[in-house]
Amino acid sequence: MRTRIITIITLLLSTPMIIAQKSMDKIDRESFAAKLSPIEVKGIQMTEAGNIPLVRDTPAKISLDGTWQLAEGGTEKERLHTIWTDQIPAHVPGSIHTALVENGIIPDPYIGQNDSIAEKQSYKTWWMKREFELDSPSSHCILSFGGIANKCTIWLNGKLLGTHEGMFGGPDFSIGNYLKNKNTLIVKLEAIPQMFLGNWPPNANESWKYTVVFNCVYGWHYAQIPSLGIWRSVQLKEQAAVEIESPFIATRSLDGQMRLTLDLHKKSSPLKGVLYAEVSPKNFKGITQYYRFDINSQKKQETLSLDFQIKDPHLWWPNDRGEQSLYDLNLFFVPQKGKTAHIKTSFGIRTIEMRPLIDGAKEDYYNWTFVINGKPMFIKGTGWCTMDALMDFSRNKYEHLLQIAQSQHIQMLRAWGGGMPETDDFYELCDKYGILVMQEWPTAWNSHNTQPYTILQETVERNTKRLRNHPSLIMWGAGNESDKPFGPAIDMMGRLSIELDGTRPFHRGEAWGGSLHNYNCWWDDAHLNHNLNMTAPFWGEFGIASLPHIETVRRYLDEEKEVWPPQRSGNFTHHTPIFGTMREMEKLTQYSGYFMPKDSLASFILGSQLAQVVGVRHTLERARTLWPHTTGALYYKMNDNYPGVSWSCVDYYGIIKPVHYFVQKSFAPLAAVMLFDRSNLASQEVSLPVYLLDDCQTLEKEPYQVKVSIYNALLDTVATHTFNGTGDDNVVKKLGEISLNREQTKSTMLFFVLDII
C-alpha cells in the first residue's frame, strides 16, 4: 500500500513538470533576445479602394546582363586606362570557367580529370568589363549587383565605387554623379585564396571557412572548382521620389487576414503621398482587390505595418495536400510630386506551426511536428544540392529537377549549409510545385566561428528580405552538421529570423535537437541491414551513394570508358566522393557486390544502384509507419553539382536513377508497404508486417482490399494474402503480418507486390 501511495504522489508531482517543460524552440527564441517580429507589431488597417489610378511615370530599370569582356591579370593602371587586347567574351550571369570553356581555352571540367585545369583558373585574378550607353543619364540611380563570387573591386568610368566580399548579394552603389552617355564598368575578381591545411579531406581548399560562399566546390566533396564570376544579374535602377523597400506580406489567419510590412524612404522630409496595393490571383481565377493607405509624415523614412483582408481566400498547400494558390501583390507609392515607385512580389496564404512530438515538449528537442494550415502532416523530402559548380543556374535546369521532385511526391527540400540561399527561380518553382524548403545559411562544421561576422550578417539580412514572401520557405537553419552550433553568428541568425520574419521556425543546426543524420552505410562500411532498421524522430539526412547512369559514366570516363576494372588513379576513381581518397572503390565494391558481380561496368553500376534503392526506400517506409513518433524523413539527396558517384537520385546531367521510381512509390500519399529488417531472407522463417498509409484519408469510410503477392526468382507464386477493411481517419494502419517458412523463402530473389484495390 505504501508503495502504491508513493507512486501516485510521484505521478502527481511530476505531471506539472512535464506540462511546464519548454521546448528547444522556445528556449532558443528567448535566448536570442529579439525585438518584436513584423507580425507581432500592432498594425494599421488599410482602406479598400475601388481601383488604382493609372500610373505612367515609374523609374526605369536597365539590365547590364549579357556579353562582357573577360581578361586575366594585369595591373589596375593597365585595366582602367588602356585598351584591352587580350579579352574574351563572357556571359553575365555566369562564371569565368564557363567563359573559358566556351572560348576553347580550357577543356570541359566535368570530363576525366579536367577539373584540376579549371581549378587553377580560380587562383588567378580576373577582370571583367561592360561598356554601355545611356541617352539621358539619371542623377538618381543605383548600380545593383545580385551576386559576385567572391571578393571584388568595382569602378565606373574610372571612379572607384568600392570593394565587396561575400557572394550572396551586393554590392549596391549610388552612381548618379558618375553616369555619362558612354560608360565603362569594370570589376576586378580577386583570386580565390589557397589554404590546403591537410585536414579532412586532405586535398581540400579550406579557404571557404574564412569567407561566405557555397562551399561544396572546394574539394571536401563532389567538385573542386572554387566558383568565380559575376553569377547574378546586374542592373541600373532609377530611383523614385519615394522608394518602397523590402515589402513583407504574412498570413495572420487562414480567413485572409494579412499583414504587410514595408519601408518608405525619401531623400528629404516630409514624406507625403498614397500607397496603393493591388492583390490579384496569380495562378487561379478570382477577383482583384485594391487597398490604399494615405501617409503624411514629417520624417524621411517610415516603417509601415498594415493590415488588410483578402476576400474568398485560396490557401497554398504542399505537394499532394491541396492546391498551390498564389497571389500577385503590386505596390505603388504615388508622391505629391516626382516619379511613382512600383514594386511587385508574389505570396501565398499559408501558416506553419511546429508542435511537439507525441510525448510532449522537451528542452533538448525541437518541436518536430509540422502543422501546415492547421493540419499536422508527415513530411516527405530529400536534400537539395547547389546545382552546378560552374554556376549555371538556368531556370530550365531548375524546372527539370523540381518537376522530378514533384512527381516523386517530395514535399520538402533541405537547401543545406554546404550550398547557398537559393535563387529566385528556385523559390518561384517551389511555390508552383508545392515543395517546402528548409533554407540553411552557408555555414558547415562550425565554420561560423571563422567566417567574417559582418559578411554573414549581410548575407542573412539581404536574403531573408529577398526570400521571406515565398510560401514554400518553411524553415530557417543556421547551417550544416556543426556539432557546436553556438556563438555570436548563430545568435545573430536566430535573432534576425525573428526580427525580419517571425513567421517561420529557426533551427541552430542540422542535425540538432532530435533530427538525425546517419551514414553508417558507406562511411563506416555497415551492412545494408543497418539502414533497414534505423529510426529517428526526424530524418535530416541518410542514404547510400551510387553510380549514375551508364551513359553519364562513359561520358566522364572519356578515353577510359572501355577500361575494366577501373584504374586506381584513373578517371573512374576520380569521380567518386572525395576523389578516391577515402577507400571509395572498396565501398562501391561492397555495396554493389550485395546484388551483382563486378565483371563489367554495367553490372557494377546496376549493383550500386540497387544498393541505393534498398538502403533508402525501406528507411522511408519504416519512418512513415512510425507516425506520429517520427514526423518526417529527408533522404540524401535529389541532385548533383558535378558528375560522379553520389547520393543523388538524379545525376548531374539530369538522368534519373532507379531509386527515383522506388521513392515515388514509398512516398505515394496512398500506399501499402511491407517492412523488412534484413535484405536477405533466403531459407529463413520470417514474419513481415504490412501497413496501409493514407496521408490524405482518401479511403475514409470506403471499403478497400490490400492484396499481397509473393513470387520467387522463377516468378512462381510463393504466397498470397488479401487484407480487407474500411478506411478511417488514421494516417497509418497496421493490417497484419505475412509469415513465410524456410521453404517459401528458399530463392535467390523474392518479389513482393502490394496492390490497393
Brief overview, please?
With about 750 residues, this protein is of the alpha+beta class.
What do these coordinates show?
The protein has 757 residues and is an alpha+beta fold. It has a six-stranded antiparallel beta sheet, with helices on one face. A six-stranded parallel beta sheet has the order 29-28-27-26-25-32. The chain has a five-stranded antiparallel beta sheet with strand order 2-18-17-20-21, with no helix packed on it. It contains 16 helices and 38 strands. Helix content is 21%, strand content 29%. Strand 25 (379-384), helix 6 (395-407) and strand 26 (412-415) form a beta-alpha-beta unit. It folds into four domains: 44-54 and 240-347, Immunoglobulins (Immunoglobulin-like, Sandwich), CATH 2.60.40; 61-237, Jelly Rolls (Sandwich), CATH 2.60.120; 355-545 and 614-669, TIM Barrel, CATH 3.20.20.80; 672-756, Immunoglobulin-like (Sandwich), CATH 2.60.40. It is globular, with a radius of gyration of 28 Å. Residues 1-18 have low confidence and may be disordered.
